[in-house]
Amino acid sequence: MRIFYAVDPSPNHWALGSSLVWQRNLHDSLAAAGHELVSFAFDFREYNRHLDLDVPSQRAWVDAHRPRLEEALLSQVRRAQAERPLDLFFSYFYAAHCRPETIRALRERFRLEDYRRAGANPYYFQEAANPRFYRPYPVRPRYDVTFVGQMYGDRPLLVDRLWKADVDVRVWGPGWREAYPSGWRLWSGRARRLLGRARLSGGDGRPAAPATPSAPGWNYPRLPARILGGSLADEDMVRLYSESRIALGFAKVGQTFAGPEPIRQVRLRDFEAPMSGAFYLMEYVAEIEEFFEVGREVVCFDGEQDLVDKARHYLGHDAERERIRAAGHRRARAEHTWERRFERFFRHAGLDRGSSR
Description:
Rossmann fold; 3-stranded parallel sheet; 12 helices; 39% helix; 11% strand
């Protein structure tokens, strides 16, 4: 198929300029399946810094700049359609990127019959991982328990619980070092503010990621600086899965952990880690049982003490941990690639004509 592809290279591209997570998962998987991709030539990064329309300053920025993205989108789709008809428009947009009426204009203006036939009918499309990028590395484990991801929600509380239980846990990602600065960084930050440099920058010159506030009524524990790492390049993240005896996954959304009914969701990491050959210990979400056999292919925890107990158990049972790790990797490679996800969707939508598969 000929697909107009409008997706930023990474959901965190504004903070991690080197990250190509979506490029390697979505774009490369579609290309490997034999589809022709016409990529939307547009820099999303500043738009992805202004996604929260409930914040007045961000909404004002979006109102001022969103028309530029929409105009570029319509122009490039029009040009691609004129060169040769498109079969599918594929995007990953937030409201800050594009309004629904712009998408409707695409459908109505260019008469993409296959896209119209799919209409707005809901289709359950879960995430996956690209096995050409997410793969085991031939290295020995260096760490007991690791987590790679942004610092927010109850993640610091769970990490603190492991650390206080004498489990050797390490974390990497945006926000961890910023939330727990060393004495030197505290001093230098004060000095900069005194000198009038209120806006700090990261080591590569980009603005630092916005601070992540804790939920009302919660105070984050003090974590030791030695267990906190910065953001990793994509390749280093994948390698870390092979360097870890246990890789963690947290499921709660934002600050909902502080409410009576926390929201949990399946995440990209839940497929990245097993595809990379990790032993994966993740926070329980009922939906994960549709994709992995819990206890045989991945292991789930529910609550702080259960997390500690299972981390200790599997650190002390190498053979059992290896069986589960290998089974999870086999299942991921067999069923949870983007190629399989796209093939099923295209068949469902009647869009599989023209595919090389």
